[in-house]
Each structure stands twice: as structure tokens, then as C-alpha cells.
Amino acid sequence: MILKIKPDKKDIVIARFAALAIGIHVLESLLPSPVPGIKPGFANIITLLVYMVYGFSAATWVSILRVLVGSIIVGTFLSPTFVLSFSGAFASLLMLYCCDQFNRHYLSEKLSVFSLAILMSMAHMATQFLMVYVFFIPHQALLDILPIMMTAALIFGAFNGIVAYRVHALVHAKVHIKQEIV
Amino acid sequence: MKLTAPDKIVFSLSILFIVSLYWGLWQASDEAYEVEIFISGEKNYRLDLHENKRLAVKGKLGDSIIEIKDGQARFISSPCNTSFCVRNGWQSHGGDFAACLPNAVSLHLVGGGKIYDAINF
């Protein structure tokens, strides 16, 4: 019996964005980082963009696919690095879900992608730190590096948020212009 | 880029949070509140630094006399040749220690922030 799975339009969209995020992730892994665990995380820009245009579940798909396939390509699948990466992604998606619910039901003025990016990146970093503290280095001295890591998370999160905002505005502008010409 | 009111709240809270991390975790506070006295590597006494007293601690070679006064501790005398322990003087910060190695007696101050994460000697 042959099972044929036909990808529908949504599958294709998610696959393309996931591929883009994976590409960014792998390229970024070439960049050296001063402290292990501090990286710009540019692939999250794709996650944020997908969230803005397609909603939370699409963003979740793109994010999880990026972590899984990215780790396979880079070669850290199921390694301690992968555990940290996956738990960080899980936490940031949880934060995204909470902000999404807040935006939809509780807030009259909405949180922009800038705040989303900052909150997600800080949740990601905090969870990774917790995992390291519990499973790898349960030493009091590890807390000394927490402020630096959270500062980096804030800065890079803000940067990614601004980039996501700009790209989104650009794409919308082009779509708008195209519609006008037609 | 347009920042809404919730955005500004989130951003300021984040800044506040991170500043509080630096403030809470990076302070090396001086005050020690207890002293632990080890004999031959085993913790024998754990005394409050604010109860002034002098005690004779029996080690391998004899009695080392340790004084605790006003949040500080020191060796007053020791039955060793060189008395490096006595010459170290008053110990007052968390993590500080003085040791009489021939007598196998050492005192370590506990409390405040540790300046050193670990010391090997």
C-alpha cells in the first residue's frame, strides 16, 4: 500500500519559512561568540515574522523545525547543546503564547513585536540558564554570569524585534504598492 | 517604530529586572556572620562572629587559641614554629580563612558574598 501525502498550501509556506530559518541558524553558527551560550539568534526574526503574518501555530512549527533540523545539520542533535536549545525554544514559544493571549483578550493597546522579541529572548535565556544550573553546573558561581547573559538577551532580543518590525513593514509596503499598481 | 504604552512598560520592567540582577548577584558584601573551625579537615565548630570569645582549639601539636571579636576572628597563638596563622591577623570578610597547617587547625569565615569561588592550596 502506498501512502501519498500531499502537502497543502500551509505546509509549503511553513516549510519554506522553516528552511529560511534553518539556513540563517546554520550560517550564524559559524560566527564566534565571546561567551558560550550568547548568540544573536537571528533565526528568531523568522519566527517573529511568521507569527506576525500567519499566527502562533505557524510560528511554533517554524521554530521547532528550525531547532530540530538545525541541530541535525550543525551536528548537535540530542547533545547537551540540543537540550538547552530545545528547552529555550520551548520557553520562548510559551512566552509567545502568553503574549499572544494577552494581546488578543486582555490588552486594549497591543504589545508590539519589539516587546515580544525582548520577552521571548529573555525567557529563552533564563530557561537555558536554569537548565545549565540544574543539569550541568550546579555551582553558586554560575550565578555570576547570569546578569551578562540576560543583558545580552535583552540587547539581541531588542535588535531582532526591530529587524522583524522593519522587515514586516517593508513587506507590507511592497504588497501595498503592488496592489496599487494592479 | 511605534512603541505603545504596554511596550514601554515591558521595556522598563526588563531594564529594571536586569539592573536588579547586577545589584543582587554582583555585590561582594563584606559582612561575615559565622566562623567555621576545622580540625584535621573536619568541621568542629560553627560559631557566631558577634559573640566575643576566646577558645582553645586542640589540634595535632597542641592548643591553638582563636579569638572572636566584633565580627572578626584570628589566631592569637599556636604551637607551631612559624606562626603564619597568627601573622595573618584578623579575618573579617566572607570566604576569608586562616590556617595553622602543622596543627591542622583552620578557621573559615562564612557569610556575605564570596569573593573567591574556590581556593585550592
What does this structure look like?
The complex is a heterodimer of chains A (182) and B (121). Chain A is mainly α and 182 residues long. Chain A has helices at residues 9-28, 43-54, 56-74, 80-106, 113-136, 146-181. The model of chain A has no long low-confidence stretch (mean pLDDT 91). By secondary structure, chain B is an alpha+beta fold. Chain B has a domain at 34-110: N-utilization substance G protein NusG, insert domain (mini-chromosome maintenance (MCM) complex, domain 2, Sandwich). Helices cover 21% and strands 35% of the residues of chain B. Chain B has a four-stranded antiparallel beta sheet. In chain B, a hairpin with a 2-residue loop joins strand 1 and strand 2 (42-48). At the A-B interface, helix 5 and helix 6 of A face helix 1 of B.
Comma- or semicolon-separated keywords:
heterodimer, A: 182 residues, mainly alpha, Arp2/3 complex 21 kDa subunit ARPC3, 6 helices, 0% strand, globular, B: 121 residues, alpha+beta, mini-chromosome maintenance (MCM) complex, domain 2, four-stranded antiparallel sheet, three-stranded antiparallel sheet, 2 helices, 35% strand, rod-shaped
Gross geometry of chain A: globular
Query: Roughly how many Å is the radius of gyration of chain B?
Result: 21 Å
Overall strand count of chain A = 0
Structural class of chain A: mainly alpha
User: CATH topology of the domain at 34-110 in chain B, what is it called?
Assistant: mini-chromosome maintenance (MCM) complex, domain 2
Terminal CA distance of chain B: 57 Å
CATH topology of chain A: Arp2/3 complex 21 kDa subunit ARPC3
Compact description:
By secondary structure, chain A is mainly alpha-helical.
